Amino acid sequence: MPAIWFKREETRAERYDRKVENGLVTRFSNLSIATVHFQCDSNLGMLVRNAACFGCDEVHVIGSLPSHRDLVAKSGNTQNLVTIRQWNREEDFLNYCKMMKVKVISVELGDSAVDCRSFELDPDEKYVFVIGNESYGIPAVILMNSSQVVKIAMPGAGICLNAAVTSGVILYEATRNLF
């Protein structure tokens, strides 16, 4: 039996425009996400898509960016729905956060990290969630300058999540907290 495929009548851009027209799009000007020297461009693409889907204002990329063409392909063409800011050094990113009064929240495994299901966000504050490198995590300079370190509780056998998956879970929890 052949597979049945459902063809959508609208493109992704048309569906987005319809959501905007109907007042169904929520943008969080106080919520952004940051990456630290990602090794895999696909992870960055999926993180950008997560950020767009959850209404983030910005994606901060500390380190290199793939070409525009690659980012379009890997983000499902959602890269234009968020502002992408690139930083060469962690210190430049942290200085920007201080200047803009953005609270840095690192998402990292650790005994002292707070379960992301129990943290509370003030809708009047600005936040950036930092997702670390796939192999090495978040650099010490960012951890030391974080207002909070949170973790995602995992009751199963796994010890850590993929970086892009982590971004989806933490953005879900953050937006749920802000609604």
Q: What can you see in these coordinates?
A:
- Strands 3-2-1-6-4-7-5 form a 7-stranded parallel sheet, with helices on both faces.
- Helix content is 35%, strand content 22%.
- The radius of gyration is 17 Å and the shape is globular.
- By secondary structure, the chain is an alpha/beta fold.
- The N and C termini lie far apart (45 Å).
- The chain has one domain: 3-Layer(aba) Sandwich (Alpha/beta knot), CATH 3.40.1280.10.
- The protein contains 6 helices and 7 strands; from the N terminus they run αβαβαβαβββαβα.
- The longest helix is centred in the last third of the chain and has 16 residues.
- The mean pLDDT is 91.
- α2 links the parallel β1 and β2.
- α2 crosses α3 and α2 packs parallel to α6.
Which key terms come to mind for this protein?
single chain; 179 residues; alpha/beta; Alpha/beta knot; seven-stranded parallel beta sheet; 7 strands
What's the arrangement of secondary structure elements?
Elements: H1 12-21, E1 28-36, H2 41-53, E2 56-62, H3 68-74, E3 83-87, H4 90-100, E4 102-107, E5 114-115, E6 126-131, H5 140-144, E7 148-151, H6 163-178
Parallel strand pairs: 1-2, 1-6, 2-3, 4-6, 4-7, 5-7
Helix pairs in contact: 2-3, 2-6
Offer a quick outline of the entry.
It is built from 6 helices and 7 strands. By secondary structure, the protein is α/β, with parallel strands linked by helices.
End-to-end Cα distance: 45 Å
Averaging pLDDT over every residue, what do you get? 91
Rg over CA atoms, rounded to whole Å, is 17 Å
- Number of DSSP helical runs: 6
Name of the level-1 CATH class:
Alpha Beta
SS content category: alpha/beta
CATH topology: Alpha/beta knot
The main pleated sheet reads as: 7 strands, parallel
List the domain count as a whole number: 1
Number of strands: 7
| Low-pLDDT ranges | none
**What's the CATH H-level homologous superfamily?**
SPOUT methyltransferase, trefoil knot domain
Q: What does the overall shape look like?
A: globular
CATH architecture: 3-Layer(aba) Sandwich
Could you tell me the strand content as a percent range?
15-25%
Approximate helicity band: 25-40%
